[in-house]
Design brief:
The structure is a single chain. The protein is α/β, with parallel strands linked by helices. Helix content is about 35%, strand content about 20%. The protein has a single domain, classed as Nucleotidyltransferase, domain 5, CATH 3.30.420.10. The chain is built from eight helices and seven strands. The strands form two sheets. The chain has a five-stranded mixed beta sheet with strand order 3-2-1-4-5, with helices on both faces. Strands 6-7 form a two-stranded antiparallel sheet. The longest helix has 15 residues, at about 150-165.
Length: about 220
């Protein structure tokens, strides 16, 4: 099943008063990026709070000629359609997104379609710092480019964190026997190995017993 890593930047912290100014989505298939992305800056038609500006560094002047959310709402909704969304601190992003979707006359995003990596991290590492930066540090993921928050960069980092949280492995290089060319294949943990075990039939057991009794010479070295 395809999933979408999603992040937003906003004019402030209130989903009631503030608005989205950047949306980034990266599509993955079995934890591997497909190359499909949705990334847009938006004109919020309002001022950006000082705290938000210090976080992401995006100015009102930069956004003046950008589209409004209603202009890209259907395209955004089409991109995420029938895909699981992977979001760090999902309550924050969904609060903004669902308000904007409602105002655009579109259906909201249901919680059932969302994996919140913050909640997953809190369950795995109770009492620890579980911000995106803290998880990058824990998993030794290079986040040196993250001088300011960026929705697109944060999605790229989240992709790596997501793999580590669920203990998935990066794609491995294996040989394709058919054409002698290497190809990328995912490493998955086999949950049920029963099908790998070949059961011995009763007939085979009896034949083996007869073989041991009749066909093997007795060693003269045995006392």
């Amino acid at each position: 099943m395809k999933e979408v890593l999603l992040d937003t930047e906003t004019t402030g912290l209130s989903s009631v008063k503030d608005k989205i100014i950047e949306i980034a989505c990266i599509e993955i298939d079995d934890h591997i990026p497909t190359g499909e992305k949705f990334h847009v800056f938006l004109n919020p038609e309002m001022e950006i709070s000082q705290g938000a500006y210090e976080t992401h560094g995006i100015t009102r002047e930069f956004l003046n000629d950008k589209p409004k959310f209603k202009d890209i709402a259907k395209e955004f909704q089409e991109f995420i359609k029938e895909k699981k969304l992977v979001i760090h601190n999902a309550d924050f992003d969904l609060g903004f997104l669902n308000k904007e979707l409602k105002e655009a006359g579109l259906s909201i995003i249901q919680d059932i379609n969302v994996i919140d990596t913050l909640n997953v991290a809190r369950e795995k590492f109770p009492g620890a710092q579980n911000s995106l930066d803290a998880l990058c540090k824990r998993f030794k993921i290079d986040n040196s480019r993250r001088q300011k928050h960026s929705a697109l960069l944060d999605c790229e980092l989240l992709a790596k964190v997501y793999i580590e949280l669920f203990e998935k492995k990066e794609p491995s290089l294996e040989l394709n026997i058919d054409n002698d060319e290497p190809h990328v294949q995912n490493v998955k943990t086999l949950k049920n190995r029963k099908h790998l075990i070949q059961e011995i039939t009763s007939e085979e057991k009896e034949l083996h017993k007869k073989f041991l009794k009749k066909d093997l010479p007795k060693s003269s070295m045995l006392n």
